[in-house]
């Protein structure tokens, strides 16, 4: 089996060798330039000129034989100087190359120290200690930004894991209640010695009702998971048409609750999943009807603002505190208990809205109305 070197050591070694090669190349070039400047300037002998004048090259005043002997001696001396220069320069260059590699190894190790911290922390982190952070110190350079990005990723993962665990716990609790009710109804009906057809029929109807509650919860959970998983398809549609179809289906419920349902639907086009967007509007309207006051109203509007398609759902109802606005968009979180009758909600309506809106690249804002109730606005991108 092939054993691969540690990435840290490989990068450190390559950086060290790169430092050494760069120093060797630049040192060789410097040695060559110095050699050319020192020993290729010509063979003339320079003597001082008259006082105050520049030095000019003159030929030596000596007999031809003596002149030739002097030139040979100068040439031999120059050749010896060249050899000594090249030898000593080469030795110095080799020594400094080794020194540069060693220094490069030390500097690379210091520079790669944050990466070792990232690698070690990433290796140790698991689902049980996502709270651990790198918290790199030092200047705001690329390595510091890498560490901060990794910390941000860990923070998002920790929030996701915490939300998932809370969701599973809440879903288990919500499913356990109708299951326990079904079991109790069945046991009571079977243990009744004087049971009649009518009593058994009533017990079975109540069991079926509890089963429908489970179906609604499971369907809502599947819709929430689908919204958080992204979109499988996109197609252009008129948001006003989708909202009008939802309102037609909700008018009977509004009348039963004694609420007024009004609309101002201006045509506006968006691109997305029609079924999910229909579920968004239905959940918003259903939430506005459930959490209302007797004689209240619900208003639904669609249109365009600053080039963006906008959906707004506003209702009367109990006063919602600013600090509770974000909470009601979490799974299995409900509004205040003051509402028109038994709400029958499962606590996933606004969570589904938030997930689907995010999947469509839109933004959702909610603000409490001064007299009570809530105004939810969804703004779609171009």
Oligomer: single chain
Question: Which word captures the global form?
Answer: elongated
Q: Mean pLDDT across all residues, rounded?
A: 78
The N- to C-terminal Cα distance equals 54 Å
Q: What is the tally of beta strands?
A: 9
| Share of β-strand residues | 5-15%
User: Which fold name fills CATH's third level, the topology of the domain at 233-379?
Assistant: Heat Shock Protein 90
**What is the helix fraction of residues, given as a range?**
55-70%
Instruction: Give the structural class.
Output: alpha+beta
The strands making up the biggest β-sheet line up spatially as 4-6-7-9-8
Low-confidence stretches: 1-8, 42-59, 337-342
CATH architecture of the domain at 233-379: 2-Layer Sandwich
Find the CATH superfamily of the domain at 233-379.
Answer: Histidine kinase-like ATPase, C-terminal domain
Helix segment tally: 9
Report the radius of gyration as a whole number of Å.
42 Å
- CATH top level assignment of the domain at 233-379: Alpha Beta
Main sheet record: 5 strands, mixed
Pattern of helices and strands: HEEHHHHEHEEHEEHHEE
């Amino acid at each position: 089996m092939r054993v691969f070197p540690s990435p840290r050591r490989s990068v450190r070694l390559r950086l060290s060798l790169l430092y050494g090669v760069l120093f060797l190349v630049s040192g060789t070039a410097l040695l060559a330039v110095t050699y050319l400047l020192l020993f290729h300037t010509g063979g003339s002998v320079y003597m001082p000129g008259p006082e105050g004048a520049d030095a000019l090259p003159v030929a030596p005043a000596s007999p031809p034989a003596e002149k030739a002997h002097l030139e040979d001696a100068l040439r031999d001396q120059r050749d010896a100087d060249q050899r000594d220069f090249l030898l000593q320069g080469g030795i110095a260059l080799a020594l400094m190359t080794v020194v540069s590699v060693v220094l490069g190894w030390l500097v690379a190790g210091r520079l790669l120290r944050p990466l070792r911290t990232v690698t070690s922390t990433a290796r140790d982190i698991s689902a049980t200690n996502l709270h651990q952070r790198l918290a790199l110190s030092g200047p705001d350079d690329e390595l510091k930004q890498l560490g901060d990005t990794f910390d941000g990723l860990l923070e998002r993962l920790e929030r996701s894991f915490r939300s998932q665990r809370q969701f599973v716990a809440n879903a288990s609790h919500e499913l356990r209640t109708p299951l326990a009710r079904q079991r109790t109804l069945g046991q009571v009906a079977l243990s009744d010695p004087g049971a009649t057809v009518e009593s058994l029929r009533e017990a079975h109807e109540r069991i079926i009702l509890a089963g429908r509650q489970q179906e609604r919860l499971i369907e809502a959970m599947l819709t929430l998971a689908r919204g958080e998983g992204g979109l499988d398809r996109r197609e252009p549609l008129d948001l006003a048409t989708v909202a009008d179809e939802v309102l037609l289906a909700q008018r009977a419920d509004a009348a039963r609750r004694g609420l007024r349902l009004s609309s101002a639907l201006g045509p506006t086009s968006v691109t997305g999943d029609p079924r999910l967007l229909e579920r968004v509007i239905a959940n918003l309207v259903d939430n506005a009807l459930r959490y209302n006051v007797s004689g209240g109203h619900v208003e639904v509007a669609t249109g365009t603002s600053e080039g963006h398609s906008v959906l707004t759902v506003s209702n009367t109802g109990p006063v919602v505190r600013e600090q509770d606005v974000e909470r009601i968009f979490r799974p299995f979180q409900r509004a205040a208990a003051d509402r028109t009758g038994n709400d029958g909600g499962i606590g996933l309506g606004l969570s589904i809205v938030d997930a689907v809106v995010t999947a469509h690249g839109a933004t959702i804002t909610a603000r409490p109305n001064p007299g009570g109730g809530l105004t939810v606005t969804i703004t779609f991108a171009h």
